[in-house]
Each structure stands twice: as structure tokens, then as C-alpha cells.
Design a protein that fits this description.
Elements lengths: L20 H10 L10 E2 L11 H14 L15 H13 L9 E4 L2 H7 L8 E6 L3 H10 L2 E6 L19 E5 L11 H14 L2 E5 L24 E6 H4 L8 E4 L12 H12 L5 H10 L2 H26 L5 E3 L5 E5 L6 H12 L1 E2 L1 E2 L10 E5 L4 H13 L15
The chain binds D-malate.
Length: 410
């Protein structure tokens, strides 16, 4: 190496692991060749298996045509979103019985970036995460160099940790429900404990609701259905999972107007100030597709996708119900979170599963230390894929010792 820069990385970056979880899994699987020549079935990342809702595809085609016409083309988008999409999102909340003003909504290009960049506004904050969690929360907090606290999910609390016993001071708290990776979901009573804790300590909750469209009866669909959450919570939501936008990129977040920081400024004004300097909005074509996903017809089409993914989750759930393994998820979110059989080392299990069945899972420790001893399966899969996965599970010995009955073949 001839030349060494005289600029150095932030000290805090030294705390990061070498690779981002899903890049590491990709690396490990790309070099794998199954001895029996079977196709590798990837149930690690929560990516889509079905095409996008037709309403969104048609709306994007139409919008692309407009861009090719001098009279109808659009330039820069308003950085926080076009009014047509903001209105559609406000109506989404109205249907949930919650009043959100369009001025409080900001459209983004995915919850990954929206939520990971959000706390940059705060000065040396204490960040509190509920582990196991989406690895982005922890990586981003470490990059900022903030003090990181965690509260742990486990068998006893059903992977729904509560704030009891946490030292009372102000935090930026990140919660995700229905949860990635565990699939468990808060009911109103449990979430209220977090809202009350935030109000008591002057903390802010960043509530990741990316999977809320999958939640069934009893699970919370929006944090704002909890009393006074609009004084202490920001909600993040994504088109990726319910409308299949993982490759299109569109999301939104809601910053209630009434939240004020200790300096007296509203959080919303600071978020908008930051955004106007750092973000040029999401493409017009994308926003038209997103608007269509929230239309009456679009929502019906999304419901069909949601049902398919939840039905895939149900099949996996049925399989694991017949084993002695502890698991969560599958009802409110298409993820299953399962105890590793015969080992506490989730990477060892990941390798074992790959070699024996050519199925890729996500090792639980990738979601934080509280995830060690567990693995995650994504049910964002076609029915045929899940049937094949279950055939392989049944004919291999990998879950044999943990089986309480005879596993039926699909
Ligand atoms: C996951 O598999 O945890 C997520 O889908 C990855 C992502 O959304 O970035």
C-alpha cells in the first residue's frame, strides 16, 4: 500500500462486527454446494416470494409514462412525500381509529434507513434496545457511539420483554412489534407499560411497525392506539412486507406534532430541518405505487399476499408444534423463532441444517446475544417451497431427537 489516508474511521466503528448479519449469511451460503445436488432453499432473509399487487404495478407503469411526457413529468418530490400519498397514509390510520395529520407523516425509502438514521438528531443519547432485534438498531447505535442498553427477551417472557427493573433515566427506546425476529407481538396492555415508562422517564420510543399488517386479533396495529403514545412515540412503517416493496423501496414514519425536546423545539420541526438538508424524497413512480397499495382495491390485493405468507407460517408452526422445541411467532408475523435442537450454538445449527437439508435459516445470535441458542425461519415463501422444506425436515434426523411424535410428511 503506497498511500495511507490521514483520515481515520470513527472510534465507535471499531465495535462493529466485521459483517452485517445478512451479508455474512449470503457469503456463507454462496459457496455452499449440496452433496445431493438439491436446490438451496433460503428461509433466512424476509424477502418477498410473490409478485407485487397488480394495482401498484399498474399505477407505477402509468406514473412512468407520465415521466416520459413533457407536460406531465415530475422533478424533485417534496422531501416528505407527495400529498396524494400522505393523504392515503392518513386514511390508513383513520381506518385504525387514529387521527394523524398529513403534516406529521414523512415518506421514506425503507424502515432500515428511516429508523437507523433517526436518532442522529439527539445529543449523546442512551439507546435502549430489546434484544433479540433487527441487527440494524444495534449496528446504528454502535456507529453513533451512543451508550447502548438492552433488555432481553427469553422463554420466560415469551420474547416480549417489559420495562420492569430498568434503571429510570431518559432513553431512545427502539421496539418492534410484531417482532422481527421472534414473531411475538405486544397486546395493548404490554405496550402500555412501555409507553408509561417512556412518559415517566422522558424517553422517546421508536416503534417499528413494519409487520403490523400481519398482526391478528389482540395484537397492536399501531402504537398510537395506546393512550398518550402521541406524547412519546414515533412510528415507522414499511410497504416492503405487506405490499412486496422490498425491491421498490417505500416507507413512512409518523412524528406527532406535540412531542417536544428538552430545548423546547418540536421533534417534528427538527426532523424536517434535518431531512430538508439530507434527503430529496422518494421517486414519484414509487409513491404512486405505494398510494395504489393503500387504495381499497390495493388493500384487498395485499390481503391476499398477507394470507399466503401467514398460511406458509402456519405450516411451519404445525411442524414445530409436533416437536418438543420451544418456539414463538407465526401468528402475527411470518417469522418463526425456534430453539436450536441439541446445541446452544446457533451458527453451528445453521451449518448443520444447511448440510443436512440444504435449507438456510438465520442463526439467532445474529440478532444479539439474547438470540443465541435459537434460529429464525422466514415464511415469506411460496407454499411449494415450504412443503419441500418440511419434507426435508421430516426425512432428515435434524429435528428427530426433539420430536415428541411421528412427524407426518406433507
Ligand atoms: C429480515 O430478514 O430481518 C429483514 O427482512 C431484512 C430487512 O428488512 O432489511
Amino acid at each position: 500500500m503506497k498511500n495511507l489516508l490521514k483520515v481515520a474511521e470513527k472510534v465507535s466503528y471499531k465495535k462493529l462486527s466485521d459483517n452485517y448479519l445478512f451479508s455474512e449469511i449470503r457469503q456463507k451460503t454462496s459457496s455452499f454446494k449440496d452433496a445431493d445436488g438439491r436446490e438451496i432453499l433460503d428461509l433466512s432473509i424476509g424477502d418477498i416470494a410473490y409478485a407485487l399487487p397488480p394495482s401498484s404495478v399498474n399505477a407505477m407503469k402509468k406514473a412512468a409514462e407520465e415521466m416520459g411526457d413533457n407536460a406531465r413529468k415530475r422533478g424533485y418530490s417534496p422531501e416528505n412525500g407527495y400529498p396524494f400519498l400522505l393523504n392515503a397514509i392518513a386514511s390508513y390510520y383513520k381506518n385504525l381509529g387514529v387521527k394523524i395529520d398529513t403534516d406529521e407523516i414523512l415518506v421514506g425509502d425503507g424502515t432500515k434507513s428511516d429508523i437507523s438514521l433517526f436518532p442522529d438528531i439527539f445529543d449523546r443519547s442512551n439507546e435502549l434496545i430489546a434484544e433479540p432485534c433487527y441487527p440494524v438498531y444495534k449496528d446504528a447505535a454502535l456507529m453513533r457511539g451512543n451508550k447502548l442498553y438492552s433488555v432481553c427477551g427469553n422463554k420466560q417472557n415469551g420474547f416480549l420483554p417489559e420495562p420492569d427493573g430498568i434503571e429510570k433515566k431518559p432513553y431512545v427506546i427502539t421496539l418492534c412489534s410484531p417482532n422481527n425476529p421472534t414473531g411475538s407481538a405486544f397486546d395493548k396492555e404490554k405496550l402500555k407499560k412501555w409507553v408509561d415508562f417512556a412518559l415517566e422517564t422522558g424517553s422517546l420510543i421508536l416503534y417499528d411497525a413494519a409487520y403490523s399488517a400481519f398482526s391478528g386479533d389482540g395484537a397492536v396495529k399501531t402504537v398510537f392506539s395506546v393512550k398518550n403514545a402521541d406524547e412519546c412515540a414515533v412510528e415507522f412503517c414499511s410497504f416492503s412486507k405487506f405490499a412486496g416493496f422490498t425491491g421498490i423501496r417505500c416507507s413512512w414514519f409518523v412524528v406527532p406534532e406535540k412531542i417536544k425536546l428538552s430545548g423546547g423545539k418540536t421533534l417534528l420541526s427538527l426532523v424536517k430541518r434535518k431531512r430538508s438538508a439530507t434527503f430529496n424524497g422518494v421517486s414519484y413512480v414509487t409513491q404512486r405505487g405505494a398510494e395504489a397499495a393503500l387504495s381499497f382495491k390495493g388493500r384487498k390485493e395485499c390481503e391476499i399476499l398477507i394470507k399466503k405468507y401467514l398460511s406458509a407460517a402456519n405450516k411451519l408452526k404445525d411442524f414445530f408444534s409436533k416437536t418438543n422445541l420451544f418456539f414463538t411467532g407465526g401468528d402475527n408475523c411470518p417469522y418463526l423463532w425456534i430453539e436450536c435442537p441439541n446445541t446452544k450454538n446457533s451458527f453451528e445449527f445453521f451449518e448443520n441444517l444447511l448440510v443436512k437439508t440444504a435449507v438456510v435459516c438465520t442463526p439467532g445470535v445474529g440478532f444479539g446475544n439474547a438470540g443465541e441458542g435459537y434460529f429464525r425461519l422466514s415464511a415469506f415463501q411460496k407454499e411449494d417451497t415450504v412443503n419441500e422444506v418440511l419434507n426435508r425436515f421430516s426425512s432428515s434426523d435434524i429435528f428427530k431427537d426433539s420430536t415428541s411424535g411421528v412427524l407426518s410428511k406433507n
